[in-house]
Amino acid sequence: MAQKKHCVISDEMLAKDATALAACLQRGELSSQALTARTLAAIARSQQDINAFVHIDREGAMNAAREADVRRRMGKPLSAFDGLTCAVKDNIDVAGMPTANGLGYRGAAPVARQDAPAVARLRAAGIIVLGKLNMHEIALGATNENPHWGRCENPLRAGYTPGGSSGGSGAAVAAGLCAFALGTDTMGSVRIPASYCGIAGLKPGRDSLTMAGVTRLCRQLDTVGPLAKSARDLSTLWPLLNGSSSPAVRPSRKSDLNRVRWAVMEDCERVGVDADISKVFRELTERLPGAQHLPLNFSTVDFSAIRRAGLLLCEAEANVTFAAELKQQPQLFSEQLHGLLQWGAQRSAPELVQAADTVMTAGDWLQQQMRGVDFLLTPTAPQTAFPFAEAAPVNQANLTSVVNMAGLPAVSIPLGTSEDGLPFGLQIVGGTGSETAILGISVALQEWLAVHELAVTA
User: Fold this and answer.
1) What is the pLDDT of residues 19-38, one digit of tens each?
2) In the structure, what pLDDT confidence band is assigned to residue 249 with cuts at 50, 70 and 90?
3) Segments of 33-150 assigned E as strands
4) Which residues are known catalytic residues?
5) What total number of domains does the chain contain?
């Protein structure tokens, strides 16, 4: 039986990545107002099927688009992406918009008084904020099955998860409902939606971006990061997002790949990676140029232990973050979330210390593996998107969570498509402070993949 797909990008213009859209604006092929209006129309058409947005600021977006067009006519754009659109996960503050954190406020959520710094920097670059995006409840989960706001669906296949917890961010970008989006990533919540939805996502390193104005889940693991259709979009966006404190990203040439020292995950299937993904990843690592390919064995990692430890830290800290709401408005929380938080609240101090030690040890292990190499390659997730009707695989975040524990930056870019027709991603991990370098090499890798067809079937 043919799988049902959502027909969402009926406007070919919205299927372009941000870099191509910016070029159209620069050449005068369309205005920011026209682009924004077309995007808002696409959101309206898709909302019933995909449900990516929980709040839309149509008037504010059109006003910002008019201002962008004026700047462009005067020859004074604020950035290369001035006049493009973005949307923001609903645990990140946007001035004048509610921040519901995926909880059951339904129209009564607190309204943010000011933008989170990450949002303010995008606005300062002329980027138009369309609204807030659906997410897994308090960002504690990886399916975006939200009991209050409704599930957000993968735009590539009806009834399938887009991943989480930044599911709305991944779905909105993949469906052409914004040029790029902001999400948060605690154990993989930017990279997993990127992988499941066939787009690109950046998890910056620990403390590379301020988390002010973001509702925290776990301070030790949290990051805020962008999702876009391509690595080249992320490479242009990064200097804008971090306040231009780093040099502009110079996209690496494909010839630069010859000089890279790669660490390469060698035991995919032994750690539960699906056969389709393992085959394409193995073909990539056999054909990819580089000065060195160092095999890295992950089968010695106790993923079950580090997963439980990371989740326990999230559950325990969430009890503190949401203490007032839990006491005064318990109806905001689903029964399942109540159970998770209660579990975290009942853990003893020695259990929490042990969990923190397990997380730190896992991070130290990955830091050690990165010594002497430039980048580490792994599949992003062990599987493709799956139906909401199925239980979520316990290993979804195995290959992403350890990167958060090490505090390292990582990018997910599209790697291939399964026999079932669903995309999966390639994770590129860099050393501390290597966001600029990792984005440059990701551009080169995505270009290399575009001309070296890797097949699932023999």
Assistant:
1) 999 999 999 999 999 999 99
2) low
3) 53-56, 85-89, 128-133
4) 89, 165, 189
5) 1
